[in-house]
Design goal:
Elements lengths: L2 E5 L10 H7 L4 E4 L6 H4 L7 E4 L5 H13 L4 E5 L9 H11 L3 E4 L4 H9 L12 E4 L14 H5 L4 E5 L5 H12 L4 E6 L7 E6 L3 H8 L5 E5 L24
Parallel strand pairs: 1-4, 1-5, 2-3, 2-4, 6-7
Antiparallel strand pairs: 7-10, 8-9, 8-10
Helix pairs in contact: 3-4
């Protein structure tokens, strides 16, 4: 049997992929993080499915559940919020399944930063303004950042920064980015992207921290900082340009 690591998307139940929903609807066992995955998604599970909330389980307990289901001959839908490719803690689970000889597949999902961009109605890459997006986080007591990946270093690029897991440290984010982006640089925070209680904050590095604190946002949010967020005057993309020869490759 197979363990399916499924990107459940940013929150809205209808933003899971068709493939993810199909697997979820046929798997006898489903593991999900109750603190992150909305209960609406679980309605797609079989009526008699065994549902396991992993919010209070450690990595060994989660692995034991996956191995148990495999040995019992059951496929497992392992739901992860957003997309498993970033900040999902899926690597350590796959490593343990490799050691246990349990087969698995990964089903991609809609990442939180994409849902946040949709909420802002913004393309994150804009011709002549910015063509680079950096997904990152900040060092915390639990997990340090590798050398050279601190905000001061990344900020020198001038690229659009998307920070996960950093809303509660917004003052620190602003302090570290101000020297590189300037107080007037557009900034935004989207919390609970795509959900009914979605919060969208728009501003600059000068005022975004106060907005975040006033709104009470401390988790399930992404912070975006960069000039493309406020770009209005820019050259059209060559992709649809009337001057482009569409008869050549």
């Amino acid at each position: 049997m197979t363990v399916y690591f499924i990107g459940a998307g940013p929150g809205a139940a209808d933003l899971i992929t068709v493939r993810g929903a199909r697997i979820l609807g046929t798997s006898p066992v489903c593991l999900y993080a109750g603190s992150l995955v909305p209960r609406d998604l679980l309605a797609a599970c079989p009526a008699d499915a065994r549902l396991v909330d992993t919010a209070l389980l450690d990595i060994d307990q989660i692995t034991a559940e996956l191995v148990r289901a495999h040995r019992e001959g059951h496929d497992v839908a392992r739901l992860h919020s957003g997309d498993p490719s970033v900040f999902s803690a899926v690597n350590e689970q796959m490593r343990r399944l490799d050691e246990a000889g349990v087969p698995y597949e990964v089903v991609p999902g809609v990442p939180a930063f994409a849902a946040a961009a949709a909420a802002l109605k913004r393309e994150l890459t804009v011709p002549t303004v910015g063509q680079t997006v950096i997904l990152t986080r900040i060092a915390q007591q639990a997990t340090a950042m590798p050398e050279g990946e601190d905000l001061a270093t990344l900020g020198r690029s001038g690229a659009l920064l998307v920070l996960h897991l950093a809303a509660r440290y917004v003052d620190r984010v602003v302090d570290e980015l101000l020297p590189h982006y300037g107080a007037d640089c557009p900034a935004a925070v989207v919390a609970m992207a795509s959900r009914p209680d979605e919060i969208v904050l728009r501003g600059t590095l000068d005022d975004i921290a106060e907005q975040v604190k006033s709104a009470g946002v401390v988790r399930t949010a992404v912070i975006m900082v960069g000039r493309t967020l406020g770009a209005e005057q820019f050259r059209d993309s060559h992709l649809y340009s009337p001057a482009r020869d569409r008869h050549t490759c």
